[in-house]
Amino acid sequence: ADTSLGGFDHYLIKEIHEQPRVLRAIAENYAEPVRRLAAMIRESYGSFLIGCGTASYAALSGAYLFSRIARRHVNFAVGSEFKYQEHFLTERSLVIALSQSGETADIIEAVMAAKRAGARVAALVNVPGSTLDRLADFSIHLGAGPEQSVLSTKAYTAKVAILMLTAHVLNGSEHVGREHLWRAVDGVEQALAPASERRVQEIADRIADQEHCFVIGRGLSYPTALEAALKIKEVSYIHAEGFAGGELKHGVIALVEDGTPCIVFSPLDETRDDILSGAMEMRSRGGFIIGVSPEAEEVFDVHVPVAEVGDASPLVGVIPAQLLGYYLAVRRGLDPDKPRNLAKSVTVK
Ligand code: G6P
């Protein structure tokens, strides 16, 4: 047995379980770097959050968190698309680059372009000494420890936690941010408790033979829905797609058939009524509704309870999706740590 797995069967499930520890360390130790990042955002005129893959969804989550908590507009672009927005860069711009490895080619290229334009670069990066870390004017190290699984999990929640805290600093409500993060630490622990994990495993058993799976969320939960779908598709090869709840009627609803699994993120925020009516539309087309929510709603066929943690809802919501990806892969006889065709870090273009 591989001792570095610490009793787990795979790195993916081991790393999923490391998240409470990673988030706790951020809640305890990151006040100073977070204030500094907030100051850089305040001083800038035009900021861009960029990332690839899972890091792009953390970046999009950041854009929603800054908007909702701090009323601050931060642009978002996936790394490979940033070059088509480069003309917006000035000496007053700030590029906030998110990357687990710090080696993703599209991100490095974007950062080089930002530097050529005289813009400033902040990084949220997990690997100290990586190319991104060295290029950035200021880096926050995620402190998540090495990620061995190709799927990014603990680096994702670390980035979202740091951005949530930063948004609260910008809003002058640092203590609220910290309190929500502490609640999320407990919430993530609950989502990983044996009974919660078993519930997700049962759902995986039930939907493992499906070809398609749809995931919806609104507001803060929209990036979570995209990340949830990515987690499921990259490791189980089930075609999973995340959508903004409001887009259902613009096409997606045509794809829902009898028994199609539909994951619905329904935190107790301003999105609740609208997302539940979307769930109802899917259900009336035969969709099998898997509701991730603090409340057991009538429209759910299966309820995955998560803690109510205010603005930190993306942190607890994503956990069942990570577990679902893992258990779907196991159930389908696939290697959860090494999905076909994917590399841990994409250093070529
Ligand atoms: C690859 C990995 C993903 C990761 C992405 C960005 O596609 O398979 O898990 O999210 O690269 O990697 P980075 O190291 O920049 O976060």
From TrEMBL:
It comes from Sphaerobacter thermophilus (strain ATCC 49802 / DSM 20745 / KCCM 41009 / NCIMB 13125 / S 6022). One of its GO terms (biological process) is protein N-linked glycosylation. GO terms for molecular function: carbohydrate derivative binding; glutamine-fructose-6-phosphate transaminase (isomerizing) activity. Keywords: Aminotransferase, Glutamine amidotransferase, Repeat, Transferase. It catalyses: D-fructose 6-phosphate + L-glutamine = D-glucosamine 6-phosphate + L-glutamate. Residues 37-183, 203-339 form the SIS domain. The lineage of its organism: Bacteria, Pseudomonadati, Thermomicrobiota, Thermomicrobia, Sphaerobacterales. Its EC number is 2.6.1.16. The keyword Repeat applies. The chain holds residues 243 to 591 of 591 of the full protein. This is Glutamine--fructose-6-phosphate aminotransferase [isomerizing].
